[in-house]
Amino acid sequence: MFVPAGTSIKIEGSPWTESDLQYYKLDLMVAELKEETSSALHTKDTAEQRSLHKCTDSSIEIPLIQLNYSPWSSCLESMEQIMRQQVTGDWLEQWDVQLRFQEWFRALLRQSDPKTETPDDRARLQSSIRYIGDHYDQTITVDELAADIGLTRASYTRQFKKITGKLPLEYVNAVRLERSKQLLQLTDDRIHEIAQNVGFSSEYYFGRRFKQYAGISPGLYRRHHRQEVRVFAPYLEDFVLALGVKPVLQCSHHSWGRQHYLGLDDVPEFDVSQQDAQFNLGSVPDFIMLDKGYKTWNLDRFEQVAPTFYVDHIGEDWRSILKSTADVLGKVNRVQDVIGAYEDKAMEAKGRLEQYMRGQTVAFLRISASDITLYGDQQGYVGPVIYQDLGLTPHSRVQQWTRHERRVLIGLEQLSQLNADHLLITFDTGNSAKPGDERELLERDEWKRLPAVKSGNVYEVDFMSWMNYGVISHGKKIEDILRFMA
Length: 486
Fold this sequence. Notes:
Layout: E1 31-32, E2 42-43, H1 47-53, H2 72-85, H3 91-112, H4 121-135, H5 142-148, H6 153-164, H7 168-186, H8 191-197, H9 203-214, H10 218-224, E3 231-232, H11 237-242, E4 250-253, E5 257-258, E6 269-271, E7 287-290, E8 308-310, H12 318-329, H13 335-356, E9 361-367, E10 372-375, H14 383-389, E11 393-394, H15 396-402, E12 407-410, H16 412-416, E13 422-427, H17 445-448, H18 451-454, E14 458-460, H19 463-466, H20 471-485
Helix pairs in contact: 2-3, 5-6, 8-9, 13-20
């Protein structure tokens, strides 16, 4: 509300809420700078000013106005910042507060002016986004974008990120770089020509930005879209193979073996557990892809052998991993078919399982010679597939103990409380001193007393296909569950 001096108003809270009404009250006064104290601003409510406030001339009297500000959260944020900063003795800081207030107040009045039929902020920002899409090859500044739709730079930036998830210049660069990908695939233009065509001032700056964005250089990106790639992608073979690219090597581990479920029987193995293993002659890759576990296996030592791409998505976000893999390997046209086939498979399986399970609970255990690991329902190799994609019900202890963690270690006492209707288990041989050590748990009374064990609802699954991310791995999980439970 904009309330003229001397006017009384009554404000009431909503009758259906018990919370106290909260408000900010701003008194607008004329500021006067005294000559003898240049270090501070002082306000003086003189008789002259009071008479000005009480002026009753109807031609200049300001009416009571109801004001609107959208989004309201932005209004509160600005006001709270002003209120926090107003108690200061530094005259420059006070000036800054005044400028912030005037900026905020101008936006408030502008939005509330009945003569101005401006669209809401979202519509105006959408028009700004369309402008970027049409003019990305030209010089674009945030100040110009904000001024064009009548917002301050700060407000524009804040609301732009709320809609797009990116800062304005990040978004502009993303549009330019996506367009450059198309030009690299479809034309024979030189790199510096493409850089200029999409709005970058130099080839060097474009190349640096492109590698930060895509993970590889523009030249390598172009080559991958025009010829087959000899790729080494340890523990990412699932994604590579799903896109129709056979890796030149497949990773293995001296305790866990290789990923048999991928069917790469004719592809040479590379043992990642040997920290100093090298490529054999004839199996040197042209391109290397590494996930976040590369440090465990000391695989970044091969950066000098071939261009290396680092996947920065977490395993649960396998769709994004698949998309980025397809992008750097030149297989973008296959992504939607692969994801669509998986989602159809999961939906059909979920429908079948609903008929059989009907509220019965499930838990998944990874058992080794020394540990019992319970996997959570929200994250990890297992939870997102069996509990989210397939809609199975996790046992209450799964939710209680993991608390959205990927996995937790449990002891025999906790195991005794895991009275799920169905147990899925896999055996980890990684720290077994001799074959079969990891299965000793099955002979203990605590295990034999479990309801799922007594009813015969315990199902052993393949370690490598269940302890991996990827569309092929997750598809195998679905097939196993259907075979056991439907």
